[in-house]
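Researcher: Let's try something more involved. This one mixes different molecule types, so please make sure each is placed in the same coordinate frame as the others.
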Amino acid sequence: MITFIPRDKVSKNWTIIGPILSIFLTIFFGLLIFTFLGYNPLETLYQIFLSPFSRIDRISDILVKACPLIIVGIGLMLCFRANVWNIGAEGQFIMGTLLAGSFALLFPSVETKFFIFIMIVIGFIGGALWAFIPAILKTKLNVNEILVSLMLVYVAMLFIDFIVRGPLRDPMSFGFPLSKPYPEGAIINKIPFPAIGYLGQLHYGILFIILLIPISWLFVNKTLSGFKINVLGAAPKAAKFAGFKQNTITITVLLISGGLAGVAGVIEVSANIGQLQPEVSFGYGFTAIIVAFLGRLNPIGILFAGIIIATVKLGADNAQMSMGIPKVVTGLFEGILLFFLLTGETLQKYKIKWSKVT
Amino acid sequence: MDALILTIIATSIPLLLAATGELITEKSGVLNLGVEGMMLSGAVGALGAVLWLGSPYFGIIAGGLCGVLMASIFSIFTINFMTNQVATGLGLTIFATGLTGLAGAPLVGKTVPSLPKIEIFLLSDIPFFGEILFKQDFIAYLSVAIIIFITYFLKYSKSGIVLRAVGDDHQSAHSVGYPVKKIRWYATCFGGMCAGIGGAYIPLVLTPHWSEGMTAGRGWIALALVVFASWIPWRIIVGALIFGGITIAQLVGQARGWPIPSQILSMMPYLATIVALTVISGRISKSNSVVPASLGKPFFDTQ
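Model: All components are placed in one shared frame. Result:
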């Protein structure tokens, strides 16, 4: 029998070992399931985990794919630290994109790239407004934020579908549900490298992450607000005694995470799509939940987690093309990974003791 | 009119079953957000079993078993390894979405025979009511039986009272000598079974073929139904019928060409869920007694 004994203090070793061990256990169990369902495990292993590294342009595509995951993940980090369960980032991503995109389409001849900054601000507002609904319901009426934020994902998906097929459809799109293309000023360019040209789809949106990670690190580790968020999540009673305004914190983290999800949408669409279409997100909002946990709710961890998960996503695309495995299998790995990561969290706090069944 | 009411009932049965199962799980103090995942696995399991073994009744068994299997995974992690229940439940749904996508890929494009209707002798001849209530399929009767059983179980049986005690105060229940973890395992697996059968109902009756993510958020609506019912079993029937009604109303609206965009109509069940949660939660927060007090809190047994 296994019994758990509380540790005197949280184990630092497990903070590092946990995620690494989790990744290996996930690969092992994932491949076990693949073998069981009749797929070649070695080929699956290669396609999902290694093929994304096989060419330099593919490696830069990992960064491109990781970009929205990291931005959304950083926002969710704040929520999860405060024990606020925003699982509707997918919807906030969509609404941020939609608001900023509609705005961009009002100015068809804008050329200056400063326009992107306005779009990012509007995207933030769009996502934050969508997150404001669960925030206000949670704090005023004690409505469960998990269910409300999730229901709003379905609403957002249907809403963008309606807008793109109806009011914003490009009459020149030959019946396709697409908006007009964004103006020049709303497009994020690819980064040109001397002598080699472009590296895959690598674009200037990456710069936002380079800015976001240190800022968010300072925010959670060095500011009073960051400290309050941590206390509220770890010890809600202590937060109450200390007189922290729980509702203000809840609303703030939801608005920031919704806003960042919106920004992620703006960057993703401006860099890679350049117009509005019914599907803009491809599950980034949900995957970012895993990214936030794999990164141990820590900005630097989330950077690496985003890259790892993006690799698996791209690998799954490759596996779909070469082996006919449906793309949703990434969920299989993500789910198992989350199980082990959470177990790792328990092992940070408890020691295992093996004993014979009596 | 009969036909319309029958479709509403059929639409509400998966919600009814999944919500009833989750109610028992939550009464034991476990919040399993993996209902959507358990329903999906029930759906794919049922389809596979029917294609393999022929009879739709095997689909019910397979659906239930798949649900229990998923609930067991959830139980190992949350109950034994004391992981965060919210995150683990999300993980279960994400995991099951991937797993069913993979397992369901060979089933795409195949259809299964639907669950036969069982007429109850004499009663089915009653005009109107006979048609609606006594010419249903096996799962429909089963779900009503489960609701009646659950109501009795929670109110009058000793095991039911122990289950509630575990959900309300696990430390006290433990110190009196009740096996908290074991009881939670059973309750979670019962929830998984119900969700699995509810999921099985979707391909067996509603749409007889596999498509990825075919539960379309029903698991989440079922979770909301438990809150809507304020943890009282019979209210789940009311809630499930209301949601079934809204779902069918918007479909009828789309078919008859109401002057509202179809996407806006499709939002109705989700918006109705938010409205229902808001109305009910406001009331619940005033009288806190209906929510199981230990809901969502991991239990650590000091030996």
